[in-house]
């Protein structure tokens, strides 16, 4: 999910964002959903969740 959506989930912002933003790898395809903005990234495989990177 995007930094804006994550900030909203963690109650770090005062105003709700405009929908949910999700980033997926360029090799994936999903159906569009109302209120969900899909972003594609070539670098997604190289990134890890900070909490899980120590395993």
| Rounded Rg | 13 Å
Rough outline: flat
Roughly how much helix do the residues carry, as a percent range? 10-25%
Structure classification: alpha+beta
Low-confidence stretches: none
The SSE string, one letter per element, is: HEE
Number of strands: 2
Provide the spatial order of strands within the biggest beta sheet: 1-2
Beta-strand content bin: 15-25%
Question: How would you sum up the major sheet?
Answer: 2 strands, parallel
> Separation of termini?
21 Å
What's the average pLDDT?
80
Q: Care to describe what's here?
A:
Strands 1-2 form a two-stranded parallel ribbon. It contains 1 helix and 2 strands. It has 55 residues and is an alpha+beta fold. The mean pLDDT is 80. The relative contact order is 0.20.
Features:
single chain; 55 residues; alpha+beta; two-stranded parallel ribbon; 1 helix; 22% strand; flat
Question: What is the gist of this entry?
Answer:
With 55 residues, this protein is an alpha+beta fold.
Outline the secondary-structure elements.
Layout: H1 3-9, E1 20-25, E2 36-41
């Amino acid at each position: 999910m995007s930094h804006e959506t994550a900030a909203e989930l963690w109650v770090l912002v005062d105003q709700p964002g405009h929908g949910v933003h999700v980033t997926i790898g360029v090799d994936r395809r999903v159906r569009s959903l109302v209120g969900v903005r899909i972003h594609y990234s070539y670098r997604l495989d190289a990134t890890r969740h900070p909490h899980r990177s120590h395993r």
